[in-house]
Design goal:
Helices cover about 30% and strands about 15% of the residues. It is α/β, with parallel strands linked by helices.
Length: about 190
């Protein structure tokens, strides 16, 4: 009997010791005990950095498509930076004249602005040929055979540039002969 009583007392003492080592429990009001109260450690500031929110995607950029090389494209990737959408057709001489300047601007502003070609009015083979022949493969080109992206941006003819600011607002839409003035327009949007 004495051994059983000793075991119960020992077990009780052990449980009390372990309970005293546990983290403080919240008070009955549902909030933690105030710092400095008996048996509770002072509150520590959080060292966890707040999660970085993804940039808001303007409605105009909520579209998807396929590039001329068959990759998926999500317009949301253009959010939070100025963007140039260059609407072209493979057989268009004005578009060919714009190609070199557009490629130069895309390279110059890489990482600070987005440049995307939007090919239409022909078939994918012709679009791929244009990209290769004109050496404009340094930025993505959408294959927009059915004209969905053209309609979204209200483009009615090839060799049109649409320039958006970082918030997705249209700041320019029109033709720039041989791409002249594209760099200047974009430089005004890139800080």
């Amino acid at each position: 009997m004495l051994v059983q009583r000793f075991a119960v007392v020992s077990l009780t003492v052990l449980m009390l010791v372990l309970a005293g080592c546990a983290a403080p429990s919240p008070s009955s009001s549902g909030s933690p005990s105030p710092a400095g109260s008996a048996g509770s450690p002072p509150a520590r500031p959080s060292t966890t950095a707040p999660a970085t929110a993804a940039p808001a995607v303007p409605a105009i950029l909520k579209f998807s498509g396929t590039t001329v090389d068959g990759k998926d494209f999500d317009g949301a990737t253009l959010a939070a930076k100025p963007a140039v959408l260059w609407f072209w057709a493979p057989w268009c001489p004005k578009c060919r004249a714009q190609a070199a300047e557009t490629a130069k601007v895309a390279e110059e502003y890489r990482g600070r602005a987005n440049v995307v070609g939007v090919a239409g009015l022909d078939k994918p083979d012709a679009m791929r040929g244009f990209v290769a022949d004109q050496k404009v493969g340094g930025f993505p080109h959408l294959s927009d055979e059915n004209g969905e992206v053209w309609r979204r941006f209200e483009v009615t003819e090839q060799s049109t540039y649409v320039i958006l600011d970082a918030a997705g607002n249209k700041v320019f839409s029109g033709n720039l002969v041989a791409g002249d003035g594209l760099a200047e327009k974009l430089s005004q949007l890139v800080g």
